[in-house]
């Protein structure tokens, strides 16, 4: 079966709201462990104001340090505005993630602007980044529903997708920010998007709030998607989404695909050592399952 | 889409290895809450030796008390041997669950007998129970793999299934005791079993060890299975299976099916109140997700 590419976002979506702020050295060591485990796409930070999100303040330094080290790795970061774009360009980043929300209420809470205003800025930012020669992934947050508004009309998501494609985005990221997606809906929205925009690669960003992260990932894969966001350990969660859980755990996604014979290029045991390291650094146990399974196997062998 | 029937096993598989032994009154109140939430199949206990599994010592009393109360509910319990069958008959139970393992190593650890011996006894027990006029569900443990032996040959599972059908079993339960199943395997084994035994209803028992419980449940549903075992809160786990996690959480299964438009007959909020009650009684938080989601909604409304 077709291989998949997993983008690990533990260093960005995973850490951005963690109370404990990791040092640059700690992040560098995590980055290198992830790359060594075979992760080939890494979203490592966010160019936001360091006072608003101090967890991400060292994103530029992190990128400058590792960017020559791992030629096979697609290095990316989140950019929210013009200033962030300038900073991303200055540190030599070749790929960006940009996004806005399909839900007004979520947009107001997250970026303090209505969805249409935020989307207009997003389109402009995509154009600027493409004009500057960057590869751009454009994302639609709350594409599968919003905790505040409930269902999000598919027509709205499809219209946003079409306009993002027109503005030159190289990839469309459909994000289940609220963890509300279900597998039937995932298949339907992916099919409609692919039918409308057959040239545009689609990636899927899932949260595991209702325990359906892997189920939705498989549904997307069965619909032809081969790019997925994950985070080591299942790190993550959003303060603007009530009851939000983390991203799909990278190690659980690797196990799923391995079990059904789909290549990820990632070494599961090496990946679980990164999860161990996160658990040590953050001093808590993370929600991903495979690290527990592998630890219990190790204990039994010892 | 076709409706599904969820059999809640929280009172049996969920509680059988809990350190805290609930009282008969506590179990009665849980049973009544589950039935009131719309659960229509309940596995409430196990006729094992009370010294071996004191958690299940009051199974007969529990059944005798509730059996007239809830005419719409299929009441069932686990029976392991002739003595258990006698006890089940004495308390007027009309439906039994019997099973043995497809894996020798698991069988030796679980019942201290090789798989073929345990299976011969199971066949005899099925015949006795059927002859006594009982409805019998016959289960194959480790049907999707064994932590000790790895892959379990499908041919072995299919042969056991055929012999169970011959002995008069009314339903075949394929159990992923080790939580090792993957969705491709589930679809394949269900398809083969249905092809070989088209008249025999199949139910599926899944553990969430690798986070694939719901994914495998959906795969089985897509293959035509409409009977699933669950446990409120995701209770459960097996001391003879390294790193085992609980059953698929009843509330998460209800949410999945509700979201994709498949009827379960169960009220999700009422079910989550049972999970609340389990969490109070056991004094810990359970792994199911939907109770957390509904609690955060309640908090936001308050």
What share of residues are in beta strands of chain A? 15-25%
**How many alpha or pi helices of chain A?**
12
What summary fits the major beta sheet of chain A? 8 strands, parallel, barrel
Kindly report the average pLDDT value of chain A.
95
Largest interface (C-beta under 8 Å): A-B, 33 and 33 residues
The gross shape of chain A turns out to be: globular
Runs of chain A with pLDDT <50, length 5+? none
Instruction: Report how far the terminal alpha carbons of chain A are from each other.
Output: 36 Å
Oligomer: homodimer
CATH homologous superfamily label of chain A? Aldolase class I
Radius of gyration of chain A: 18 Å
Q: If you had to describe this structure to a student in words, what would you say it looks like?
A:
The first copy, chain A, is α/β, with parallel strands linked by helices. Chain A has a single domain, classed as Aldolase class I (TIM Barrel). The first copy, chain A, has twelve helices and eight strands. Chain A has helices spanning 10-14, 24-36, 59-66, 82-90, 104-111, 115-131, 154-166, 183-196, 213-222, 250-259, 268-282, 290-301; strands at 5-8, 41-47, 74-79, 95-101, 135-141, 171-176, 202-206, 227-230. An eight-stranded parallel beta barrel of chain A has the order 1-2-3-4-5-6-7-8, surrounded by nine helices. In chain A, strand 5, helix 7 (154-166) and strand 6 form a beta-alpha-beta unit. In chain A, helix 2 crosses helix 3, helix 2 (24-36) packs antiparallel against helix 11 and helix 8 packs parallel to helix 9. The A-B interface holds A 182-185, 208-215, 218, 242-243, 245, 249, 252, 255-256, 259-261, 288-290, 292-293, 295-297, 299-300 and B 182-185, 208-215, 218, 242-243, 245, 249, 252, 255-256, 259-261, 288-290, 292-293, 295-297, 299-300.
């Amino acid at each position: 079966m077709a291989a998949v590419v997993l983008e690990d976002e533990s260093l960005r979506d995973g850490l951005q709201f963690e109370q404990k702020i990791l040092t640059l050295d700690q992040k560098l060591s995590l980055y290198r462990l992830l790359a060594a485990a075979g992760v080939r796409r890494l979203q490592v930070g966010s160019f936001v104001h360091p006072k608003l999100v101090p967890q991400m303040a060292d994103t530029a330094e992190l990128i400058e340090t590792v960017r020559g080290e791992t030629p096979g790795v697609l290095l990316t970061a989140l950019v929210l505005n013009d200033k962030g774009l300038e900073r991303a360009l200055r540190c030599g980043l070749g790929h960006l993630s940009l996004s806005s929300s399909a839900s007004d209420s979520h947009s107001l809470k997250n970026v303090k602007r209505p969805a249409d205003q935020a989307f207009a800025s997003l389109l402009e930012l995509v154009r600027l980044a493409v004009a500057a020669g960057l590869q751009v992934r454009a994302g639609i947050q709350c594409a599968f529903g919003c905790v505040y508004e409930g269902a999000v009309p598919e027509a709205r998501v499809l219209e946003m997708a079409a306009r993002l494609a027109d503005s030159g985005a190289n990839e469309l990221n459909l994000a289940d920010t609220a963890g509300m997606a279900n597998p039937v809906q995932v298949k339907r929205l992916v099919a409609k998007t692919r039918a409308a925009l057959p040239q545009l690669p689609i990636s899927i960003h899932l949260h595991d709030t209702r325990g359906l992260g892997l189920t939705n990932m498989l549904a997307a894969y069965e619909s032809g998607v081969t790019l997925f966001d994950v985070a080591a350990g299942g790190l993550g969660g959003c303060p603007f989404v009530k009851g939000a859980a983390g991203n799909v755990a990278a190690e659980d996604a690797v196990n799923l695909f391995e079990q059904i014979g789909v290549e990820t290029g990632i070494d599961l045991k090496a990946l679980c050592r990164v999860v161990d390291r996160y658990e040590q650094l953050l001093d808590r146990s993370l929600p991903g399952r495979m690290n527990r399974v592998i630890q219990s196997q190790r204990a039994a062998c010892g």
